[in-house]
């Protein structure tokens, strides 16, 4: 079954130098285990290939029903150096939510 991440979560993003920070927060508690299982480092790295030149890190925040991703070397040197239109990575949360996940479970929104 294919499901859009935006149906499971909302997200925020920003910057720390040349590293983009994308937080993904489950819309409901029952969605969090699905996000944890299917929103992997490899999946995120693949989704942002060509934008993220460095490593992708993932941190689980179960008390917030959230995951936090660091996308290293994604912002062209950071806000004061970058010539990118989105030097602070604010649009990356929207890009993350466009992702579709292939899940095994039968699932109702």
CATH topology: Alpha-Beta Plaits
Characterize the biggest β-sheet.
Answer: 4 strands, antiparallel
Number of strands: 6
User: What is the name of the CATH architecture?
Assistant: 2-Layer Sandwich
CATH class: Alpha Beta
N- to C-terminal distance: 12 Å
Q: Which structural class fits the helix and strand makeup?
A: alpha+beta
Let me know the average pLDDT: 84
What is the number of helices?
Answer: 3
- What is the strand content? 25-35%
Residue windows where pLDDT falls under 50 for at least 5 positions: 82-89
Helical coverage, percent range: 10-25%
The 3D shape can be described as globular
Plain-language structure description:
This protein is an alpha+beta fold and 109 residues long. It has a single domain, classed as Alpha-Beta Plaits. Helix content is 18%, strand content 31%. A four-stranded antiparallel sheet has the order 2-3-5-4. Strands 1-6 form a two-stranded antiparallel sheet. A hairpin with a 2-residue loop joins β2 and β3. It starts with a strand and ends in a 7-residue tail after the last strand. About 7% of the residues have low confidence.
């Amino acid at each position: 079954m294919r499901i859009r991440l935006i149906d499971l979560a909302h997200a925020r993003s920003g910057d720390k130098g040349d590293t983009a920070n994308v937080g993904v927060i489950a819309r409901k508690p029952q969605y969090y285990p699905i996000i944890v299982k299917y929103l992997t480092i490899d999946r995120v790295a693949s989704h942002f290939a060509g934008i993220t030149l460095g490593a992708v890190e993932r941190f689980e925040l179960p008390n917030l029903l959230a995951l936090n991703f660091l996308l290293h070397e994604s912002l062209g040197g950071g806000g004061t150096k970058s010539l990118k239109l989105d030097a602070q990575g604010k649009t990356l949360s929207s890009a993350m939510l466009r992702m579709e996940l292939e899940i095994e479970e039968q699932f109702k929104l």
